[in-house]
Design goal:
This protein is mainly α. The protein contains 5 helices and 3 strands. The chain has one domain. Strands 1-3-2 form a 3-stranded mixed beta sheet. Helix 2 crosses helix 4 and helix 3 packs antiparallel against helix 4. The longest helix is centred in the middle third of the chain and has 54 residues. The radius of gyration is 22 Å and the shape is elongated.
């Protein structure tokens, strides 16, 4: 699988899908992506053995590509679907009011128009808070799953390194310049090997054929400790709410 496998983090998917409907309640381009699965470990994670071989592994990809990871994150995605519906309904309500303001604003008296503008402001702020709360909750659940799998996968990785003469294995989850590796050839990547071994160890069956994990449109990788951009309401082209 591609190294950006972790980009399908489901919370980002449902947050973006709800807010991207009209791209006005919250600008999707300004939304921070869900944190990387490896956020619970340093970006430059290494496993040091007694051999002299060098290897690389994409820990993020290994977690999400494992049968257990696919199962757990698909279950989380389904769990979050009601919240996605809730956010969609809130967004639709805000958009409906904005369309009303755009179509009728010039015909309204000042009092009626002021009340509608205030209503839009209040509902949009409520939507933005709901989006942020939902994102935070989902990210916490994602990190809990990733950490749980990582704790079980790490000893397997250390054993593999020792058994196969590796002196060092470097995590390539975060591409350069955010990570330590500028370039590494596929011949030294052991991600699939570790995933296959972990699948045997976990005993979790592979997902049914045709069952695809839902990608997050436009999701971008973030690094641990990165500052999240602030969410900002998109500008309305017709009668923007008064500040």
């Amino acid at each position: 699988m591609k190294s950006n496998f972790a980009s399908f983090l489901m919370a980002t998917a449902f947050v973006i899908s709800a807010t991207a409907l009209a791209q006005t309640a919250t600008d999707p381009a300004a939304l921070p992506a869900a944190p990387s699965a490896a956020a619970t470990t340093p970006a430059s994670t290494t496993v040091v053995g007694s051999g002299n071989k060098l290897g690389t592994i994409n820990i993020e990809q290994a977690i999400f590509a494992s049968n257990e990871g696919q199962r757990e994150f698909d279950a989380l995605s389904k769990k979050l679907e009601p919240k996605q519906t809730e956010l969609k309904n809130l967004n639709d309500e805000v958009e409906s009011l904005k369309k009303q303001l755009s179509a009728q604003g010039e015909k309204m008296n000042d009092d009626a128009r002021g009340k509608l503008v205030k209503q839009i402001e209040q509902k949009q702020k409520s939507l933005e808070r709901s989006v942020q709360d939902a994102r935070d909750d989902a990210q916490n659940q994602q990190n809990e799953i990733a950490q749980r799998i990582l704790q079980k996968m790490a000893p397997l990785l250390v054993k593999y390194a020792g058994d196969n003469g590796y002196g060092i294995i470097i995590d390539t989850s975060n591409p350069w310049p955010n990570g330590p590796v500028l370039w590494a050839g596929p011949s030294i990547d052991i991600t699939k090997t570790i995933v296959d071994a972990y699948n045997v160890q976990s005993g979790v069956a592979a997902p049914p054929k045709g069952a695809a994990t839902r990608p997050a449109p436009g999701a971008a990788r973030t690094t641990p400790g990165a500052t999240k951009p602030q969410t900002t309401p998109a500008k309305s082209t017709a009668a923007p709410p008064k500040q």
